[in-house]
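Troubleshooting log. The previous structure file for this entry was overwritten by mistake, so regenerating from the original sequence record. Sequence copied from the archived sheet and checked twice against the printout by T.R.
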Amino acid sequence: MLKIVLEGHDNYYGIGDVVRLFYGPCREDKETRAVLCDFGPDMTLISAADASSVLPVNRQVKRDLYEKLAQITGMSFPWGSLTGIRPTVVAAEENFDHRALIEKYFVREDKARLACDTARLEKSIAEQAARKLNVYAGVPFCPGRCEYCSFIAQDVTKHLNRLHDYADAMITEMDTLAPFISEVPGTIYMGGGTPTVFDEGDMRRVLESMKEVFRAGEKTEFTVEAGRPDTITEGKLIAMRDNGVNRICINPQTMRDETLRRINRGHTAADVVKVYEQARRNGFDVINMDLIAGLKYETADDFLNSVKTVAELDLENITIHTLYKKRRAGMSRDDVLNADGRGDIDKAVQRAYEFLYGRGYVPYYMYRQKDTELGLENTGFCKPGTHNVYNVAMMSYDSNVLSVGAGAMSKRAFEDGRYERCPNVKDVSLYMNEARECAQKKISFFDLRRNAR
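Regenerated output below.
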């Protein structure tokens, strides 16, 4: 068993992140001030704070441990000792100097350059959105569970009767908020789940309420994460367009039919193209598609073929995700992290980025999640001038996000750099009974009575 004893610091979380990179799951033992890993070698190491280091203690101890474990194992990872979800924050702190990321944190050169490229644009977008109001509306329903996903609160195939009542609850929450919304939001984002699981009537009702309550106008960035093509109809596209939606996401995840079938997506690659063409005909000028690198049933080359296929559609935004292990997903940890026989996913992601750069796309936001192969990242690419402000604002410490819907998380940023969060109840049934109370909680949280209409 590997034992890492902490001396002069309490960064159990960060030390655990580094250990997981090399050896897998570990646990904290605060009685002995140690992090323990049953899958590591039988040895004890000391993780000590160094007062002479120019790095913050939490980063210094991670860097030192990473360097030691790399020597022991002969292994290295693309992001070096940076295990946090937002490497662009560190890139900005280093004044976008990729060499500093390499020297201080052992970040691989291509990732260091990517972080700096992304951070420049991300910082500019965040400054424009600072302390402005952003709105999120959550619809935690999907038409079925994809094998890699554990996010769904409700499987529509079992709860179709709840959708109409859920739409009523969302409208109740928004109507309760309406008299207190004095600021016109810069962005509105309807996500999920899959918001387009609503039938056409309920989809229109919810969108009409959102447009009226939040006064969406021509200058409002209004996005709907339409998601699965098998839930998108001409009528829903028209309802979106009529109510001010000017950006949509159509997310195939892969353009390989065999993979789509095996991960339970319920649509084909041809369906993706068909819905994309419908959206263009209905006036949508900014369309995003998500793809996942490292899916269980396909090779690295299959992923690259998907990237090239969606790029041929001349999309404004393409987002590259790396598969990660979700707690309740059907895919096992080995399915996600041990991709032997599927090709070099790391190299495929590099090649995908190079291809997108070559097509005129630029990276504008990035985040990382735990339990991805090699600790890889998720990166949003856009054609210049078509970035999605909400995607940056929701991660920024300086932007307010008012969220409605079951499980939706609101965020309030303060002038002194602090931020606080305010969650709605997660359970859909409770939410439908307490939508008005959820709104009242946010009225107090944001102190909205002071500036009521």
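The chain has two domains: 1-75, 130-404. Archived copy saved in two places this time.
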